[in-house]
Write a structure and sequence with these properties.
The chain is mainly α. Helices cover about 80% and strands about 0% of the residues.
């Protein structure tokens, strides 16, 4: 397994990177590291978007309940 793959897998599992992980990143192929970072960013942003969408749904349900109660 390449250096960046194990580090990416670690981050995707929600683990924090260590100092040693950071040092290993310096020896990675820059293109491969960029691609790995892009995968991680897309996943994190998708997760944040889904959370925001859920919050909006909860707010809508709350407003509907309040209107029904009136």
């Amino acid at each position: 397994m390449q250096n960046h793959e194990s580090i990416l897998r670690k981050r995707l599992n929600g683990e924090r990177l260590t100092l040693e992980d950071g040092v290993r990143l310096y020896s990675c192929d820059l293109l491969a590291l960029g691609q790995a970072a892009q995968k991680l960013t897309k996943r994190l942003l998708k997760h944040q978007y889904l959370q925001k969408e859920e919050v909006e749904k909860v707010k809508e349900r709350k407003v509907k309940r309040e209107l029904i109660q009136k």
